[in-house]
Amino acid sequence: MALCTWKEIFRTRPNPNFTCLITCILTFQNNNYNYGPCGRAIGVDLLNNPDLVATDPVISFKTTIWFWMTPQSPKPSCHDVIIGRWNPSSGDRSANRLPGFGVITNIINGGLECGCGNDNRVQDRIGFYWRYCGILGVSTGDNLDCGNQRSFGS
């Protein structure tokens, strides 16, 4: 399976596709960590057939939804964060993890992008978020950046 990088998605592809995006998300999370739980949840053996995420559009969509909706302790689900259902613990607050888009970046790729100050990858992601919020006519909310957050794994 040919894996993509965030640079590939957000800088060299004007219209990144979900297949590449979710393949990166599932892969970046500790190698095959997510393939087992996600595969069990959607009823597909992704550990032995990881290419299905990149080659089957229905499985790609299912894995995207699974990742968005599923908390993975100590991380909340992206969905709970974006709809305001997540309440940070005292440990989260001391790590500067406050409700907002920055925590979603932390959930997805915090070990690589968060706690690094001003990171171009994060700024690119925020730019896309601003753009799509504008198109949809919704507020971006607060706490868009994760530069001052400790990752969930630290």
Automatic annotation (TrEMBL):
Alphabetized UniProt keyword annotations: Carbohydrate metabolism, Chitin degradation, Glycosidase, Hydrolase, Plant defense, Polysaccharide degradation
Domain named Glycoside hydrolase family 19 catalytic: residues: 59-69
UniProt-listed Enzyme Commission number(s): 3.2.1.14
Annotated InterPro entries: Glyco_hydro_19_cat, Lysozyme-like_dom_sf
Signal peptide range in chain numbering: none
Catalytic activity field: Random endo-hydrolysis of N-acetyl-beta-D-glucosaminide (1->4)-beta-linkages in chitin and chitodextrins
Cross-referenced PANTHER family: CHITINASE-RELATED, ENDOCHITINASE A
Family: Belongs to the glycosyl hydrolase 19 family. Chitinase class I subfamily.
Free-text function comment from the UniProt entry: Defense against chitin-containing fungal pathogens.
Protein's UniProt name: chitinase
Source organism per UniProt: Solanum pennellii
Gene from which this protein is expressed: LOC107001553
